[in-house]
């Protein structure tokens, strides 16, 4: 089964709008009911959020966990109230919580060191203080990392390869992201050897993104890197539209950026991690301790190139780069 078919299955699994989901998926069963929580700062009606949640639910289903039969899930999603959502979820005493993104993992672990936590979409769990060690996390948390800081250097290398004329690069940085500055540092350390000047743009909302990109863009030597972060995820369509409007070659961290019109992306299969997270939740529900489960990093990063966008920008993608791509969108 190919990746596109799996994604269609995930979307079908959810059905309807995630905005209409109840905060609690209630039980109607005769088996012993187990209770877990999901904490996510991205709004539940975000299309990609729905796909991620569906991947997690599919993974649980493959392991025998069926909502309404032997599993109850308390969802708390969206940025507006997520600090309050932390307290709500902990008070519900779930047997394990799936925490999505560094911005929610920190507050959650500050609120509880007893409820097991499985995290995803976290870049530096040791540096952020979530776990003392990847191999032996100890405590009540474990999970899956998405990006090592070294990947950030790869983003600027790819940008320079696809657009050799670029000498100025704006980096969209969510200042609330615990790992954003580390990723920026990796880019800045690589920039001089590539003859590139870096201009960080701190973003907190859509208006700030629009002002920052418009103020940066000057001409044909400019480029853009969007780091992973809550604001970059929530406003991805705006960022892609701004890059097109300002004629900025841009590199993104997730496949859905490229499929939505972004030039190029380099990153892991995040949906695979949600299914892996379901495996850890299953193991914890069956008695294993989160501190005994090692934090896992991606084993493969995928390169996706949007040729239609490249043509619109007047770029000739090198054949050597196309040959390395895992997916080319035409």
Provide a brief overview of the structure:
Helix content is 41%, strand content 20%.
Explain what you see.
The chain has helices spanning 3-14, 47-62, 82-91, 102-111, 149-162, 180-194, 206-216, 230-234, 236-245, 255-259, 270-285, 307-312, 319-324, and strands spanning 24-25, 34-40, 71-77, 96-100, 117-122, 141-145, 168-174, 197-203, 222-226, 250-252, 264-267, 302-306, 327-329. By secondary structure, it is α/β, with parallel strands linked by helices. It folds into 2 domains: 3-146 and 270-292, Response regulator (Rossmann fold), CATH 3.40.50; 149-267 and 302-329, Response regulator (Rossmann fold, 3-Layer(aba) Sandwich). A 7-stranded mixed β-sheet has the order 8-7-9-10-11-12-13, with helices on both faces. α4 (102-111) links the parallel β4 and β5 (117-122). The chain is elongated. The relative contact order is 0.13. The model is unreliable at 1-29 (pLDDT under 50).
Keywords:
alpha/beta, Rossmann fold, 13 strands, six-stranded mixed β-sheet, disordered N terminus, 2 domains, 41% helix, 330 residues
